[in-house]
Amino acid sequence: MRNNEQQRGEQRIEQKLQIIPLGGLGEIGKNMTVIRCGDEMIIIDSGLMFPENEMLGVDLVIPDISYVIENEKCLKAIVLTHGHEDHIGALPYILKKISVPVYGTKLTLGILEGRLKENGVDCGNLHAVTPGEIVMLGCFSVGFIRVNHSIPDSVGLSIKTPVGMVVHTGDFKFDYTPVDGKMTDFRRLADLGNKGVLVMLADSTNAEKEGHTLSEKTVGVAFNREFANAQGRIIVATFSSNVHRIQQVIDTAIKYRRRVAILGRSMVNVVNISMELGYIHAPEGVIIDIEDIVNYPANKIVIITTGSQGEPMSALTRMAMSDHRQVDIVQGDTVIISATPIPGNEKVVAKTIDNLLRLGANVIYSRSEGIHVSGHASREELKLMHNLIKPKFFIPVHGELHHLFAHARLAEELGMTRDHILVGENGFIFEFTKERGKITGRINWGVVMVDGLGVGDVGNIVLRDRRQLSQDGILIVVVTMNRETGKIVAGPDVVSRGFVYVRESEELMDEAKARVMQALKHCAEEKITDWSTIKINVKDALAQFLFEQTRRRPMILPIIMEI
Which of 114, 160, 314, 540 could make an S-S bridge to 141, C-beta 3.0–4.6 Å? Predict the structure, then answer.
């Protein structure tokens, strides 16, 4: 009897582990995950995402951290896996709202510190760690495991909790010939698997791609081939955070006795930080100022630049539009785009390539040329990670839903039972005990849009208005009325922007003015004196007429000036 009562008591106080993704599930980017046990929690990564096509005018999208702010007293730390924007880019905005220690490797924090200073955020809470180190954060013991990715100092995480061990792979691939010679810590991963892992969260970006992801060193071989063939300047566009790629460009430039200039604000910042911290190496005199390229023959110059995604204000895009202050594309230039377009960027990248070709450049951009490889594990590497970790439960993360389901099927093929594979979306609460794992609910979740200096002040209503303006334009109706008598003193005047060209639509505009007059006359007859009601009447009358005539619905903005 006493034993049964003890067992029931233990069941009542059985601790539960919660994993709550705030970003990174069902999407590429915006990675952020809460790990919670009781009244203590940590956050893994805090990334941003570039806006979708329908998010007109929006610069960036970051996770909604309302849940974090509501539970700020429970938050022990933010832990970072690596320095890509989709993992650290939201921190300049988040750290303005909450004060919390941030842990990451040296290069990750070096890049983050630059971003924080640009945004006027204090850097005093940053704590550097090294791969292999273990940090105590409340009830969590967080270990940092070296993995390979497309940026140095990338780590996976082992998180020992009162309920069990959690392993988060971070973004990774198994590169057996890494550029810096630092391989994934296979021994640590295997040790964790042998000791027992309750749940693994693993990168799913390439879960649909068969085989192995090629080593980053293969890009160096492709660079060597293209540099040997180039007769004029070489311009290489890549992600500013791809430090290994930048190092290989520099190494190949040295081999062919070329000087290297760095172009693009983010590229300059990352290269300077990486050189200062010892992640990029170049002999004295190899890297020159962009202003000095005119002092060297074209066949002695390499320019490393931003713009591999066709970003409108990037250096490469402006060069392609003949709109760059320092560099003009000329006949004989070789442009190497060492990146694959992010989904949604294909058209703008293709346009940039077309413009470069039109200016006479030789453009190398196909992945088949070998000038780009992924930083994410393909299916065979994912299988190896599963076999090393041997988790009891598995949550696929970092990918759109079809990536997550492909990774779930892979886990099932490896022998994991379906009820131990939990596929979810942002805001889902994944709850675990020592024996059980399930989805128990969902927190209030959303996104925050950054537009210029505004953070969160653009929502669905503003986007709807922008969408309407972009599709059908705006019609402004201005009329001056006497407040006391309600008589029209001047107008109505109709101004069209993005709807019709007024000079070619005089009959339509005249009839529109007549409809406005009818609406105003009706209001006078009904003795309606409230300006808001008058505006609604004008708007309704005009909207119906314009739709009948044009099958378009411009935004109608009535303005009543009173005297």
Answer: 160
Answer yes or no: is pLDDT of 525 > 90.
no
Whether the CA torsion 201, 202, 204, 209 is positive or negative: it is negative
- Output DSSP code: residue 221: H
Q: Nearest 10 degrees: CA dihedral of 113, 116, 121, 122?
A: 0
Name every residue whose Cβ is closer than 8 Å to that of residue 274 and which is 6 or more positions away in sequence: 107, 110, 243, 246, 280
Q: Alpha helices of 446-500 — where are they, by DSSP H?
A: 460-472
Q: Report the distance separating Cα 408 and Cα 412, nearest Å.
A: 6
Question: pLDDT tens digits for 127-186?
Answer: 999 999 999 999 999 999 999 999 999 999 999 999 999 999 999 999 999 999 999 999
- Using CA atoms, how far residue 200 sits from 143, 189, 421, in Å, is 14, 11, 10
510 C-beta neighbours (distance < 10 Å), count? 10
Peptide bond before 51: cis, by omega within 30 degrees of 0?
no
CA 129 – CA 137 distance, rounded (Å): 13
- In the sheet where 40-44 sits, what is the strand order? 126-129, 102-105, 75-79, 40-44, 32-37, 17-23, 428-432, 437-442
Q: What is the pLDDT of residues 339-379, one digit of tens each?
A: 888 766 788 888 999 999 999 999 998 766 788 999 999 99
Angle formed at CA 288 by CA 287 and CA 290, multiple of 5 degrees: 125
What is the spatial distance between Cα 239 and Cα 518, in angstroms, rounded to a whole number? 60
Closest by alpha carbon to 70, among 98, 95, 47, 91? 98
The reported pLDDT for the residue numbered 458 is 46
Burial degree of 190 (CB within 10 A; 0-12, 13-18, 19+): middle
Using CB atoms within 10 Å of the CB of residue 274, give its burial: 0 to 12 exposed, 13 to 18 middle, 19+ buried.
Answer: buried
pLDDT of residue 323: 87
Classify residue 342 by its DSSP letter. P
Instruction: Please state, in angstroms and rounded to a whole number, the distance separating the CA atoms of residues 47 and 44.
Output: 10
More confident residue, 54 or 328: 328
